[in-house]
Amino acid sequence: MYDYDTSTRNQSPPPLLQASPRRLDEDEQRQSWKHDVFLSFRGRDTRNNFTAHLWCALNRRGIKAYKDDNELVRGDSIEPSLFEAIEGSRFSIVVFSENYASSPWCLDELVKVAECRRPLGHTVYPVFYDADPTDEDYQERAFRGLPGNGVSEEDLREKVKIWKGALNEVGGISGWDARNKDQAETITKIAEHIWDTLKLTPQTIIEEDLVGLDSREKEVSKLIDGAHLDSNDVRIIEICGTGGIGKTKLARVVYNKQQARFPGRSCFLPNVRESIENHGTKHLQKLLLSQILPEKNISDEEEEGKILIQNRLHDKAVLIVLDDVSHPQQLEALVGKNWNWLGQGSRLIITSKMELLVKSYGYSGSDDDVRDVAESAPIAKKYTTTCKVYNLEKLSDNESLRLFSQKAFNQREPREGYEELSNLVLGYCLGLPLAIEVLGCFVRGKSKAEWESVITLLKERAKPEAVQFDRGVFEVIKVSLGGLSKHERNMFLDIACFFKGKDVSDAKRILASCGFSVDIGLKILSQKSLLVISNGKLEMHDLLQEVGREMVRKKFPNNPGKHSRLWSRDDAFHVLDEATGEKKVKAIVLDLPNKDGEQLQCDKKAFSKMSKLRLLIVHNVVCNQGPKDLSTELKFLDWDGYPSKSLPTSFRPKNLVELSLTNSNIRQLGCGKKKDFSNLKIMNLSHSHNLTKTPDFTAMQKLERLILEDCTSLSEIHPSIGTLQKLIHLNLSGCNKITKLPIGIMESLQELLLDGTNIQQLPESICSFGKLSTLSLKDCKSLHGVPKNIANLSNHLKILDISGCPQLDKEQIENTLNCLKILH
After folding, report:
1. 407-410 CB contacts, 8 Å cutoff, 24+ apart
2. How far apart are the C-alpha atoms of 675 and 247, rounded to whole Å?
3. How far is CA 745 from CA 288, 765, 794, in A?
4. What's the maximum distance between 2 C-alpha atoms anywhere in the chain?
5. Angle at the Cα of 583 (from 577 to 584), degrees rounded to 5?
6. Which intervals hold domain TIR (predicted)?
7. 612 in helix, strand or coil?
8. What are the beta bridge partners of residue 637?
9. What is the pLDDT of residues 558-580, one digit of tens each?
């Protein structure tokens, strides 16, 4: 570990900066970091030198660093996006430069960094580039030029007080003093320290989950190392075992231990089989390259992806884990036939339910089974591949009891008086960690009488001496699910059918729209070991997902029209083509991997009998026609490429919370009739090139986000838009026929995006938008002026984009709003 240069600091580092890792509490362990590092810096000082080199050094080591100009995409709201990036980062590195504190933008960033440092376990590292932020003269110079436009002296004093507090707090932390130092050396120290610290904090594996894995990890590591730690052969290890036995968790533990030997050259790809089924091979190729290499522009063509992997990996020693592989073709698309794309010294770990190496490649797994890869390699190689198969055994009785006790009693052994009951329950778990964890969570806190009732159920449904192995685990899990409330069970089934592996923020938004208490529900399901949030994704074991899906199919296995949820392409196509869907259908998610779209002959009456349908998502499907009817119960409608010119005449959308008809053929929403959208919060009609006018917004008073980007035929905005007092985001970018905005005083509006519109003048009322933080006017060629009172926005406006506006007096605007981040 590198020592900090503390020559300018007197304080000891706060606890978060100590070298020894601390025991995180439960909530912190579950924190999902989307980024490793957030970089806070003043662009004009260090963007093109120190910070640029630091970002590259971090990236080369596989450390995901967030730099605002590198990560923000067009359409993102600048301030919320940056704040979310700070909250989602494990570390922040603040580069204090001469002009850092003269930017309110940077100072607000710094305040957020300081806020996250305290409750979220977010570690902050300052770099003193050419300034000491705690120096009073530095602060006085920085604050002297702050404008007072639209801000009372009292409010300005309060802001300065907060900013000074953040400067003193973060400036008082031990960090790196780069003044009069070799910048390359300083950057190397920073990058290596972050890398070393990340190695101490492997994600998603906590102490109680390691029962029985420690000895198994050592056995697998011996196979990886072979006779010599630095062996130059390519070693392939396959971890085999039945579902729920802990293959993925063991692979993750091994990966965390081994990746220090492969700095910036390691990759863990979970759920390979499912990912290829849902997203295609090229999706995984992109993930593989982006994790090992700083690749951004990766081809969408699978064959080109193969060539790129060959060319980039053949001379590198890499560590790759491919989890849940079910077919040789999956391996060959990612690491080549016979793994001949891997460089000398590489290690490949595979998890599989079958002995893939033995059955498909003929490897015996013995010490003598060593093969020369030179014949099939794309570039001549003079080393061998060694393959080993590791069959993961179930937990021993003692290991099972310890894991069960941790889940059921939060201790290493059963509570007094529960020893016999615990062993009776464990008799039905068959030594499988998944079954033990789920059942242990289920009986936690229950009385002895309730335990006995559970055992009675298990006797009836999961007889250990007669039942098939996987079937027994199924029944154990089903018994545990019986302890969920109706609300929790429905949420579990939605996740099992639709949202496993999906972005957690998207899933939460959809589930909330459907009326679920999302945060409470996710917490309960997580506590019961039914799901986990990892790296911003909702994850669930394959067996748990299959149990949930079987529960949906069980009563009518051959009649999908009577299933409550439709997720299978074949089932959904059959129901929509034959119009066999009935009242029982509550949710349909048809999201196909082929982005070109698959043709579906959808019956016009396909949805007519689905009176309970609450969720409908259709992506990458080309339908011949739209629906005649839609359920009044519908709460979430997302149909990309919606084929009709309007919503069905009979549709009453009073329960609809989110409506997304992107790339649609829609011309107007209601076929001339005013509809009740009283609960609608989000409307997205982006890229609907036939849309000519917006609906009347009078009945949409809960609307928060209105996205009409690239609606190139849209020429008329209904004047009732000015009544939307809860609207926080309005995007009209690319609507080149829009010449004026009939907006009133929108008290809640935070983001207004008008890029590429044909407006000539901003309305005066915009100066009264008290929460507007982002105003984007990029490429507004006809815009010749801004309101004279626009200085009123100075207190809250964070970014103004006037690039590509040739008729504007940019210098005058910059002088008026000189505290803003202005792009031009």
Report:
1. 407/208, 407/436, 407/437, 407/440, 407/441, 407/444, 407/529, 408/440, 408/441, 408/443, 408/444, 409/444, 410/444
2. 53
3. 49, 6, 17
4. 84
5. 95
6. 33-198
7. coil
8. 616, 659
9. 999 999 999 999 999 999 999 99
Residue linked to tokens 């004009």: 44
> Which two tokens mark 802?
């006037």
Residue 223 near residue 347, CB atoms below 8 Å: no
What distance in Å separates the CA atoms of residue 507 and residue 502, rounded to the nearest whole number?
A: 7
**Which residue in this structure is represented by tokens 């993961």?**
392
Q: How many CB atoms are closer than 10 A to CB 164?
A: 18
Q: pLDDT tens for residues 454-477? A: 999 888 876 554 344 556 678 888
Q: Would you call 8 helix, strand, or coil by DSSP?
A: coil
Answer whether 0.85 is exceeded by the pTM.
no
Is the distance from CB of 777 to CB of 805 less than 8 angstroms? yes
Burial label, 317 (beta-carbon count in 10 A; 0-12, 13-18, 19+): middle
The answer to whether residue 109 is catalytic is yes
- CA terminus-to-terminus distance, the chain: 43
> Exposure of 131 by Cβ count < 10 A (0-12 exposed, 13-18 middle, 19+ buried)?
buried
**699 contacts 674 by C-beta, under 8 angstroms:** yes
Q: Does residue 320 surpass a pLDDT of 90?
A: yes
Distance CA 120, CA 33 (A): 11
Cα separations in angstroms, 457 against 471, 482, 731: 15, 10, 55
Instruction: Order across the sheet with 234-240: list the strands.
Output: 266-269, 319-322, 347-352, 234-240, 384-391, 370-372
Residue 668: which of 694, 640, 642 has the closest Cα? 694
User: Is 819 in contact with 792 (CB distance < 8 Å)?
Assistant: no
As given in the structure block, the two tokens for residue 66 are 């967030």
The residue among 401, 407, 369 whose CA lies nearest residue 385 is 369
| CB neighbour list of residue 259: distance below 8 Å, 6 or more residues apart | 199, 266, 319
d(CA 411, CA 401) in angstroms, rounded, equals 11
Buried residues in 595-633 as b, exposed as e (16+ CB within 10 A): eeeeebebbeebbbbbebbbbbbbbebebeebbbbbbeb
Secondary structure class of 14 (helix, strand, coil):
coil
Q: What per-residue confidence (pLDDT) applies to 780?
A: 94
| β-bridge pairing 347-352 and 234-240 | parallel
Tens digits of residue pLDDT in 579-612 = 999 999 999 999 988 777 788 889 999 999 999 9
Q: Which residue has the higher pLDDT, 533 or 16?
A: 533
d(CA 482, CA 555): 17
Query: Of 5-19, 62-76, 105-119, which gets the smallest average pLDDT?
Result: 5-19
- Cα–Cα distance for residue pair 86/102, rounded to 1 Å: 21
Whole-number Cα distances in Å, 765 to 504, 701, 793, 807, 822: 37, 19, 11, 21, 21
Residues 6+ apart with CB under 8 A from 179: 128, 129, 130
Angle at Cα 26 formed by Cα 20 and Cα 31, nearest 5°?
Answer: 80
Do 672 and 696 meet the contact criterion of CB atoms below 8 Å apart? no
Taken in order 238, 244, 250, 256, is the CA torsion positive or negative?
A: positive
Radius of gyration for the alpha carbons in the chain, expressed in angstroms and rounded: 29
Q: Indicate the SS3 state at residue 533.
A: strand
For the chain, how many residues are written? 824
CB 510 within 8 A of CB 682: no
Asked if 346 contacts 236 with a C-beta cutoff of 8 angstroms, the reply is no
Q: Given 26, 79, 87, 109, which residue is catalytic?
A: 109
Question: CB of 356 within 8 A of CB of 325?
Answer: yes
Cα separation values, 730 from 690, 727, 776, Å: 20, 7, 11
Separation CA 166–CA 94 (nearest Å): 12
CB-CB neighbours of 323 under 10 Å: 22
Strand partners, 235: 347, 386
Specify burial of residue 499 (Cβ count, 10 A radius: 0-12, 13-18, 19+): buried
The stretches of 118-246 forming alpha helices (DSSP H) are: 136-144, 153-171, 183-199, 213-225
β-pair partners for 384: 372
